[in-house]
Amino acid sequence: MTFFPLPNAFDTLPFEETDNAEADGFLGSKVGSDKRQKIEKLLDAKSLIFAEPWYKTVKSLHLWNASFIDVILISSPMGILGLPFITRMKGFSAKIYITEVSARFGQLMMEDLVSMHAELRQFYGPKKSDFPQWLRQEELEILPSVLREIILGKDGEELGGWMRLYSATDVKDCILKIHTLKYAEEACYNGTLVIKAFSSGVEIGSCNWTLNGPKGDIAYLSSSSFFYSHAMSFDYRSLHRTHVLIYSDFSSLCDTQDVEDVDNYSVPNADKLLPMSFQDLGRFNLNSDENLEEKEKLVFISSCAIECVKGGGSVLIPTNRLGTILQLLEEITTSLEASAMKVPVYIVSSVAEELLAFLNIIPEWLSKQRQERLFAGEPLYAHVQLLNEKKIHVVRAIHSHKLLMNWQEPCVVFCAHWSLRIGPAVHFLRRWCGDPKSLLILEDVQNPELALLPFQPVAMKVLQCVFPSGIGLQKIQPLLQTLQPKNVLFPEDLRLRISFPSERPFSVLHYTEAEILKVSCRKNSRELKIATDLASQFYRKTFKNQENIISILKGELLLENARHHLLLDNDTEHLRNMPLLHWGLPDSEKLLAALLKVGIHASLETISDAESQTVCIVHSQDPYKALIEIRTTSAVITAADENVASLIYKVVDNILDGV
Questions:
Q1: Element (H, E) at 404
Q2: For strand 392-395 and strand 345-348, is the pairing parallel, antiparallel, or unpaired?
Q3: pLDDT mean across residues, the chain
Q4: CA separation for the pair 502, 544 (Å, rounded)
């Protein structure tokens, strides 16, 4: 939002032309270097950057060594938008995993973003430098503090995260490098990790992850939702009882619920956190009014849109999250049908036609309510019938012949982009911003004043709505009680929002960005896959006073799909002739007593020799001279007579487990 949108022919350019202005972009408030002053400037449209927009990515992404990345897991369609910035980096060879639907939606959104950005790139011309003028320190210093903080971040370390947008070729190369999965489908990385995706309930195709390896399993919990009107339900059962659970749902940062209220509501005993069953969590969900609140929001927004068009105004809805747009589209069109108003609905996007068509062929990724509509012979979404009846018009661009021929006002328009800096939304907003009868519906825009700054004065009505996109504070502790992980990695940013009781069935570690945490993650036992015909050839022996059974094997131990596999030699006769192996250290007192029974008098010398790993030495002088050196991993019997050595060996064999 720090950039000025594409101006039209009637706009007054937000800068003063100067002879030394560079073609690669400059600040709207251009002044001579000799007149710059470090004073706080007022924020207005002239403060915005008049240049080809760059996009903010991960902090210090330009410093990353892409060859060090092994695996990338993408949890939502929106999460793939920044992927080409990484895949185009030198040395990148990581495995990328994403669900099939998220990959397709993400590809369409990236292609749409590149298409919208092409309009700006055409206006500003080819790039002249990899370091535009607005990134220079002297230009950043004269920016208003609001814009400067967006560019630099609160700590001033986010400047390196700004990059030029990728190209259509970068998008194609990125898509070729990803591996798509269905829900619960296994993908094995390097033979050691089995990776699975499970529905998170937020968006169609969004997911949480489990990583199962030989030393333990890890669950990654991203933004998830118990309210699912279109997407498949939140599959939290598949995250049950993992060794480590990484909690990465930051939507609670926007939750206004008090911490005290959350604790009192979700934890029956403030000092003790007891496990909950899946049935308990199910009842907890049923008691929640989240579903009702979501529906009431949709009905209210729809009613505002209907009132607007009744008064002769038009409605502009910049697209953001796909799920929310689908719900608004269905609710508004249903209300228009019920009111018998002949108001056209336009969807303006270069990829909308492909996206809507794709929605009709993925019922297995949708909620049960949507699937039941399919089984009942009804379309998955109400817009399918309205498209056939020409009540919804899908066009690829604002200047398309189809739109020009069918244009009618008042109307309802869905189009990109939610930032109000690129895309058809900029043109429609310029058309209606001065109309007090029209309505702009924004979803979850953090700074609406800044978003609308280039269009001031704005006379049209603005309705901002926020829909829940994750787990609320009230549900965090009940969910963790139900999942019962051994260790929970919890964001440091949420430490003050929720406190865990002292008595709980899991340990909690708080993590921050770029910090390394060491977590104990070990299985109590390991599994070994052995063929039935090979297992029948084992020679087993049970240890004394123990439940363990041991067998000598000779073969090859492999690790595949995070499981150990044993391949034995074809020749198993050699196992019968292998020398006897013993388990553990002999008890010195039992050894002396056993030697005395066969007539050998011995004494014990306890020593500690770290270099030779000797534990003790047993001396025998009467009637035979011998020496028994007991080490941590072996025992050595030394005697002048071979028969004496054999006798002592039998004594040691009787008090030890041999196999």
A1: helix 401-406
A2: parallel
A3: 82
A4: 42
The H or E element containing residue 259 is helix 259-266
The token pair at 42 is: 């007022």
Q: What torsion, rounded to 10 degrees, do the Cα atoms 79, 80, 81, 82 define?
A: 90
**DSSP letter assigned to residue 40:** P
Query: Cis peptide leading into 448, omega within 30 of 0?
Result: no
Q: Write out the two tokens for 604.
A: 């014990």
Task: For residue 595, give the DSSP letter.
Answer: H
Tell me the backbone φ, ψ of residue 158, rounded to 5 degrees. -105, 10
Helix (H) or strand (E) run with residue 647 in it? helix 642-655
Give the chain's end-to-end CA distance (angstroms, integer): 73
CA 129 to chain centre: 34
In this structure, what DSSP letter does residue 272 have? B
Query: In terms of Cα–Cα distance, which of 166, 157, 162 is closest to 85?
Result: 166
- CA triple 598-601-606, angle to 5 deg: 120
386, amino acid identity: L
- Burial tier of 193 (Cβ tally within 10 Å: 0-12, 13-18, 19+): buried
Classify 434 as helix, strand or coil.
coil
What gap in Å lies between CA 98 and CA 130, rounded to an integer? 32
Q: Is 658 helix (H, G, I), strand (E, B) or coil?
A: strand
Q: Which two tokens stand for residue 378?
A: 């009804």
Report the DSSP beta bridge partners of residue 91.
Answer: none
The DSSP secondary structure of 413-478, one letter per residue, reads EEES-TTSSSSHHHHHHHHHTT-TT-EEEEES-S-HHHHTGGGPSP-SEEEEE----S--HHHHHH
The pTM for the full model equals 0.79
Residues 151, 153, 155, 159, CA torsion sign: negative
- Give the C-alpha distances (Å, rounded to integers) separating 267 from 132, 237, 256, 270, 274: 53, 20, 18, 6, 9
Question: What one-character-per-residue DSSP string does 563-590 give?
Answer: EEEEEE-S--THHHHSPP-EESPPPHHH
d(CA 412, CA 343): 7
Radius of gyration of the CA atoms of the chain, in A:
35
Q: Is 580 exposed, middle or buried (0-12, 13-18, 19+ CB in 10 A)?
A: exposed
Q: How far apart are CA 539 and CA 244, in angstroms?
A: 38
Residues 307, 343: Cα–Cα separation, whole Å: 12
| pLDDT digit string, tens, across residues 526-544 | 677 777 777 666 666 666 6
- Per DSSP, the three-state class of 119 is helix
**pLDDT tens for each residue of 393-451:** 999 999 999 999 999 999 999 999 999 999 999 999 999 999 999 999 998 888 889 99
